[in-house]
């Protein structure tokens, strides 16, 4: 039922709409240009929400948005995340050009089209996931990274489709896939049950990958909830998590209000979940690339990585004949 | 069949007419007055009102019917449709979930594995059944039983009726997300036919966790939703009172599921809902299930898995633009697509 509805590109409607707007009530979409600057930290210094310590913003960025002393992990955007993981200039985006449509017609206070436009402008992304191929330590991989800034990293048709295509590409080429999740909402409610079905769709593709013996590594960043955690994110051959990442099915408030239970200390954090057996390892962000290269070698390559492959361009300076 | 004591808001006009009818009947019995004409008139009016109400149900009214306390639950169908259901307990890890049960049974003398989400009829049973909201153990038990079915090559029938997977501390501590996610992946590859049937509530991941299959059948007043209408209203309208609007927007009714390619067949219920005639509803369900199971049993394993894969692979609604168009679109920030839709 892939319906490629061609959206009228005409400017008539846009003009029409602007004219209809009363002068004093600011048309909502005009706000979309403003947040662009917000993404770039304007201030020279950033306060750590965990320790209260003040950090030089440029230093923070150089440290992959991790506060050096407290180890607090600020969220990464999908492009930042990809850059932090892959061999230099090896990333090639795949399956771009897919756009969400307001199939259910959410209007008024809950206008889906408007939210899509707003977040497209804010993030310069087409939807809440970036997918592609890249190399990590010289090993070709397929990659899908969700971006929390876009509708809380929720999965609708586009996210489901791009992730599924990425899994299918990994299967076809028999190369490992890495999915980095960060989603507050899980399945995107604006697309109703179609979003829910994306959980089954991505997991169906993962089943084929699983049976073919192709590695799938899931990295859970803060936060990973709902339909994303209850589908692909928790069924990796490896489930890795970032320090302090909150991971769960239902949000803590829903649980607290619904059950009156006291939430235990550290509830739903990566550390809490590793203790209870869901997470294989908690990997600090500045070690993630190296760690992933190790696992890719273990599962895909079968040999210990040469120290040089951890370098920025992921390759060995001089090709050496394989040892032994 | 007894008259439902419980009445939904929108059924009030009907209940009033029924009360007048019973008053008239009592009167004619006691005083030997000739009120036959009046009685006939009221009976006609009741019929007309019934049709008016039940043939024009709003999505929100359907949700209420799906949650009707008199609605037949899974085991009410099991005893009418299947023979010799033998419940099998436990996930062999932690416990036995009574909100999500399963076991062997026979359907037209053919062995099947039943998976069923079961709600309670009274408070005591509801405590046992956790109001039909399964814990991770339920999903893990279901998977264990489905794997057994695969091993012995018997089809799986999954009866779905849950508000949601249970959202509680224990549920999270034992990773309900993983239990559901694993079921999705494993059910996609299970080498026997799977027919899933939504009897009442299809509550999001809680339903989908035992809902991946070759066929999805839906009772007429069942719903299947990514989020409960109240939850959607609370988030998008910031007010749960907008649940009727959310229910309409979410397109969660059986017929809408069929239109969206999610459900494969809608099974008619008696006018007014399944609870008014559970036997007739069960019979419709039995006929539909027989038909679909026969079709699936004729497929070889490869085709069976291919069909299941395609069923989900094709669900999605998006616009695919050529790369050149994309560059353009990003530049001009596309403020269109306002009135289209519905």
The name of the CATH superfamily of the largest domain in chain B reads 2-enoyl-CoA Hydratase, Chain A, domain 1
User: How much of the sequence of chain B is in beta strands?
Assistant: 15-25%
Question: What order do the SSEs of chain A take from the amino end to the carboxyl end, as H and E?
Answer: EHHEEHHEEHEEHEHEHEHHEH
Name of the CATH class of the largest domain in chain B: Alpha Beta
Question: Would you write up a description of this structure?
Answer:
The complex is a heterodimer of chains A (324) and B (342). Helices cover 35% and strands 16% of the residues of chain A. By secondary structure, chain A is an alpha/beta fold. Chain A folds into 2 domains: 44-74, no CATH class; 76-302, 2-enoyl-CoA Hydratase, Chain A, domain 1, CATH 3.90.226.10. Chain B is an alpha/beta fold and 342 residues long. Chain B is built from 15 helices and 9 strands. In chain B, strands 1, 2, 3, 4, 5, 6, 7 and 8 form an 8-stranded mixed beta sheet that branches. Chains A and B meet through strand 1, helix 1, strand 5, helix 5 and helix 6 of A and helix 7, helix 8, helix 9, helix 10 and helix 14 of B.
List the SSEs and their pairings.
The complex is a heterodimer of chains A (324) and B (342).
Chain A: E1 3-4, H1 12-20, H2 35-39, E2 45-47, E3 54-56, H3 57-62, H4 78-85, E4 92-93, E5 98-100, H5 112-123, E6 129-136, E7 139-146, H6 157-173, E8 177-183, H7 192-212, E9 216-224, H8 226-229, E10 238-241, H9 252-259, H10 270-275, E11 281-282, H11 285-301
Parallel strand pairs in A: 7-8, 8-9, 9-10, 10-11
Antiparallel strand pairs in A: 2-3, 4-6, 6-7
Chain B: H1 12-31, H2 36-54, H3 59-66, H4 74-81, E1 83-87, E2 100-107, E3 110-117, H5 123-129, H6 136-151, E4 156-162, H7 169-173, H8 176-189, E5 194-203, H9 204-208, E6 215-219, E7 223-225, H10 229-236, H11 243-250, H12 254-259, E8 265-267, H13 278-297, H14 301-313, E9 317-320, H15 323-332
Parallel strand pairs in B: 3-4, 4-5, 5-6, 5-7, 6-8
Antiparallel strand pairs in B: 1-2, 2-3
């Amino acid at each position: 039922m892939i319906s490629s509805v061609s959206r009228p590109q005409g400017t008539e409607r846009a003009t029409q709409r602007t004219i209809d707007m009363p002068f004093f009530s600011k048309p909502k979409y005009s706000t979309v240009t403003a947040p662009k600057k917000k993404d770039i930290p304007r201030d020279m210094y950033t306060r750590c929400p965990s320790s209260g310590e003040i950090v030089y913003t440029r230093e923070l960025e150089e440290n992959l948005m991790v506060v050096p002393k407290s180890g607090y992990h600020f969220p990464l955007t999908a492009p930042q995340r990809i850059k932090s993981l892959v061999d230099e200039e090896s990333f090639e985006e795949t399956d771009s050009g897919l756009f969400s449509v307001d199939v259910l017609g959410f209007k008024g206070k809950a206008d889906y089209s408007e939210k899509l436009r707003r977040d497209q402008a804010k993030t310069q992304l087409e939807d809440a996931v970036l997918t592609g191929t890249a190399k990590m330590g010289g090993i070709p991989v397929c990659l899908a990274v969700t971006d929390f800034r876009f509708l809380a990293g929720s999965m609708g048709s586009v996210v489901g489709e791009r992730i599924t295509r990425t899994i299918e590409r990994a299967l076809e080429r028999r190369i490992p896939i890495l999915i980095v999740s960060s989603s507050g909402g899980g399945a995107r409610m604006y697309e109703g049950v179609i979003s829910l079905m994306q959980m089954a769709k991505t997991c169906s593709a993962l089943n084929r990958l699983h049976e073919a013996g192709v590695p799938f590594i899931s990295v859970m960043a803060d936060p990973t909830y709902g339909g994303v955690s209850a589908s692909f994110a928790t069924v990796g051959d490896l489930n890795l998590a970032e320090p302090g990442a909150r991971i769960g099915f239902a949000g803590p408030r829903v649980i607290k209000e619904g059950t009156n239970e006291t939430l235990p200390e550290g509830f739903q954090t990566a550390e809490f979940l590793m203790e209870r057996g869901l997470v294989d390892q908690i990997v600090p962000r500045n070690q993630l690339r190296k760690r992933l290269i190790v696992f890719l070698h273990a599962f895909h390559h079968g040999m210990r990585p040469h120290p040089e492959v951890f370098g920025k361009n992921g390759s060995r300076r001089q090709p050496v004949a394989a040892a032994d | 069949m007894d008259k439902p004591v419980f009445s939904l808001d929108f059924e009030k006009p009907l209940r009033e007419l029924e009360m007048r009818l019973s008053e008239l009947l009592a009167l004619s019995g006691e005083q030997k007055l000739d009120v036959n004409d009046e009685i006939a008139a009221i009976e006609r009016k009741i019929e007309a009102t019934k049709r008016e109400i039940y043939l024009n149900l709003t999505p929100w009214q359907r949700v209420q019917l799906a949650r009707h306390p008199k609605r037949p639950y899974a085991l009410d169908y099991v005893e009418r449709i299947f023979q010799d259901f033998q419940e099998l307990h436990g996930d062999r890890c932690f416990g036995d979930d009574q909100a999500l049960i399963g076991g062997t049974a026979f359907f037209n003398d053919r062995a099947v594995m039943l998976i069923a989400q079961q709600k309670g009829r009274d408070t005591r049973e509801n405590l046992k059944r956790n109001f039909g909201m399964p814990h991770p153990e339920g999903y893990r038990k279901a998977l264990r039983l489905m794997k057994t079915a695969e091993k012995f090559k018997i089809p799986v029938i999954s009866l779905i009726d849950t508000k949601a997977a249970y959202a509680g501390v224990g549920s999270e501590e034992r990773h309900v997300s993983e239990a559901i996610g694993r079921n999705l992946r494993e059910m996609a590859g299970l080498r026997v036919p799977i027919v899933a049937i939504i009897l009442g509530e299809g509550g999001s991941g809680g339903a989908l966790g035992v809902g991946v299959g070759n066929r999805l059948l839906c009772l007429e007043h069942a719903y299947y939703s990514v989020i409960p209408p109240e939850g959607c209203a609370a988030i998008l309208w910031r007010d749960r009172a907008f649940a009727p609007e959310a229910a309409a927007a979410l397109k969660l009714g059986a017929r809408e599921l069929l239109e969206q390619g999610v459900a494969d067949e809608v099974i008619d219920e008696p006018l007014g809902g399944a609870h008014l005639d559970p036997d007739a509803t069960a019979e419709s369900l039995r006929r539909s299930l027989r038909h679909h199971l026969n079709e699936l049993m004729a497929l070889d394993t490869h085709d069976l898995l291919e069909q299941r894969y395609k069923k989900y692979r094709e669900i999605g609604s998006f616009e695919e633009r050529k790369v050149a168009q994309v560059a353009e679109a990003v530049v001009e920030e596309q403020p269109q697509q306002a009135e289209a839709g519905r």
